Amino acid sequence: MRPTDPPMNLSRAGLDLARDLSVNVLRGLRDVVSHSVEQASDRRPTVAWLDQFIGEIEKAGRKTVEGLNAALDATTDALTKARQSVDMADETIRKALFENVAVSSIAGASFAGITISEIRPSFRRNGRDVGIDEALEGSTDKALLLCVPGLFCDEGMWSGLHAVFEKMGYHPLYVRFNPGAHISDNGQALLEMITEITTRTANKVNVVTYSQGGLILRSALYLMSDRSRMGRLLLISSPDGGSYIEKIGFWVNAAADAIPLFPARLFGQIGNERSDAMKDLSHGLIREEDWKNDPHPDRYGRHYYFGELDGLDAYQAYGLITEDAKHPASVLGDGVVERPSLERLQSVYKAMPATETGRVHCLTGLSHYSIIGSEQIRALIERLFAEMHCP
User: According to the lineage, what is the superkingdom (predicted)?
Assistant: First the structure.
């Protein structure tokens, strides 16, 4: 249950009750007056002055009935609009909070047991969830390009590249996940989406991912029994070895938990409410069994790669603030993901058959957030995918 449900439901119930009571009272008064007027008409006296007097009463009664009808209509309309306003407010809150990608990325689907996100994995088109058939509309004679966003992102992050995709002859398929859910859960959801695509078309599925989206793709590939329908893959800024931000976050919260002071303990408890996805990002966990069975301290020194990219036509791109190892900023990698994490699977890519464009692309001077809108990544996408514009 969402935390806004009780007050919203109470508001709806109150307005419904007020509308029903008001309408029933007005209807009752109208019926009484109308009945009285009818009775007066049936019993008209023969005395002229009295007949005239009752006639005036009838006119007044009819005007009263007309007024009550108008009041009934106005009351019903006003309370109906008030009810609609509550529904609109609830919808606005739902989109602003419960479908807020940033909130979900940080805190996940719930915070302290309270539901705060209702985002579900889905294909997306024109800012709304759609089914596979609508997602594939207009894809005839076009290659498919599945676009997987990262943490803090939804399908809107690809808007600057949409025209590029279409110019190359691709039909882009946009998806959205609950970015705060476990990477393995979103990987399962992505696998189901890819299966829907391959059951409705003979085309191969080309994929471009950003940040956490690379881990979600790898998770889906790990679960995939037959990868023969996968086309060219480009993983941009994939934190394959995790993120130093989450590693630091874990130890800061652990230290706060260990301090026997209420403010520190409270800080640690609040910090531990961060999303499952952020916890998985500590070391790039893509399998359910790893986040279930490997405590954070045991993850250091382990490699969480399971051959999911082997035999595929995969490419890697990432940015670095600086390649100068002596520069203080070099320890930050791209500002969000450290360099060793970005290059964790470099040997995997380099072991693949060589291509003219190369498998690994390090774009110096670009941060984690500037890379996706850069001319360098646009040019790389055009080089990698333009030659594959036919299904």
Answer: Bacteria
- Angle separating helix axes 5-42 and 48-93, nearest 10 degrees: 170
Instruction: Give mean pLDDT, residues 118-137.
Output: 89
Alpha helices in the chain (DSSP H): 5-42, 48-93, 101-107, 132-135, 162-167, 183-200, 212-223, 244-258, 262-271, 276-280, 288-293, 339-342, 346-350, 375-385
Give the integer Cα–Cα distance in Å for 111 and 80.
Answer: 34
In a domain, 45, yes or no: yes
Taken in order 275, 287, 198, 192, the sign of the CA dihedral is: negative
pLDDT of residue 42: 52
- Answer for the pair 299, 131: CB distance below 8 angstroms, yes or no: no
pLDDT at 49: 46
Domain with 345, as residue range(s), is: 120-244+276-388
Whether 239 and 349 map to the same domain: the answer is yes
Same domain for 225 and 93? no
CA 108/CA 131 separation, integer angstroms:
24
Structure tokens, 104: 């979900």
Range scoring the smallest mean pLDDT among 57-61, 83-87, 235-239:
57-61
- pLDDT score, position 323: 83
Name the one residue in this structure whose structure tokens are 């002229």. 48
pLDDT tens profile 198-223? 999 999 999 999 999 999 999 999 99
User: Given pLDDT bands bounded at 50, 70 and 90, which one contains residue 25?
Assistant: low
Residue of higher predicted confidence among 59 and 375:
375
- Say which residue the tokens 């006639």 belong to: 55
Number of domains in the chain: 2
Radius of gyration of the chain (CA): 31
d(Cα 116, Cα 111) in Å, to the nearest integer?
7
Task: Give how far Cα 325 sits from Cα of 313, 332, 333, 366, 380, Å.
Answer: 31, 11, 10, 16, 25
